Fold:
Amino acid sequence: MKVAVAGATGLVGTKMLEVLAERNFPVTELIPVATEKSVGKEISFRGKKYKVVSMTTAIAMKPQIALFSAGGNTSLEWAPQFAAVGCTVIDNSSAWRMDETKKLIVPEINASELTREDKIIANPNCSTIQMVMVLNPLHKKYKIKRVVVSTYQSVTGSGAKAQRQLEEESAGNFSEKFYPHQIYRNVLPQVDVFLDNGYTKEEIKMVNETRKILGDDSIRVTATTVRVPVKGGHSESVNIEFEKDFEIADIKKMMAETKGVVLEDDPSQLKYPMPLFAEGKDDVFVGRIRRDESQPNTMNCWIVSDNLRKGAATNAVQIAEYLLENKLI
Structure:
């Protein structure tokens, strides 16, 4: 099993290597891929050293699987070339997510849609993944009408340069700039670029991807995405309106029984999800579950997950595991 990791030296690529090793994915030959300036660098994987190679070299080596985390433009250019030699690409960028010919997969929800013919598979946006993990079982039982979400996203969602800005500013150096404003002791109501309608690309991703993953274009979604000075782990305040009424106890029971979701909800013990404790874990944590008393059939909850793991690397590796287990590669 030859496995290529494109963007192997970046934050998500590094996490992909970690997750592959932790989950004992059957890699017989690792092919780390990065930009030309990183070619020749060495990375470690399971105690062995591997040299970073170029895209062209990696394609010539004909890997069975390629995990991509190298940006949208890179993916648009190179993913089809990997697919052309029989490789299955699992792409973490936004390049293919809304392509009608490509599947957008969260394994616990819709991996059964995958076939041998799917040679480019899209990994959803990190904020969307953790939200739909909670929404999916609720939608099946109560039919979701509308979702209002506000996110509190960590700097690692922007990459290494953003993380460095927070670290430098925390130490008193304000010359390092990735974001348009200071992030230390600040909150930026902007994730990604603004569109003509006043929303950011990240907000529109959450709208469109949620509908595609849940397979229901009737769900109304509105989002406000915010960057906060947290190193790892995204948080979300989510308001969900259903067609059917519900009991809070039933919703908590459902969350406790949902694979990949951990219920942390005990106000009497001040127990609720926090990014500090979600970092480094693969689960999605949900708590602060309560009825919205301002209108019928509506609830609020708080969702937290490690954006580099379930929000990116772990989800991609889980897709690869599903392909392998079901003999789709």
Summary: Residues 127-307 form a domain with the Dihydrodipicolinate Reductase; domain 2 fold (CATH 3.30.360.10). The chain has two domains: 2-124+312-325, 127-307. Residues 126-142 form the longest helix (17 residues). The longest strand covers residues 144-152.
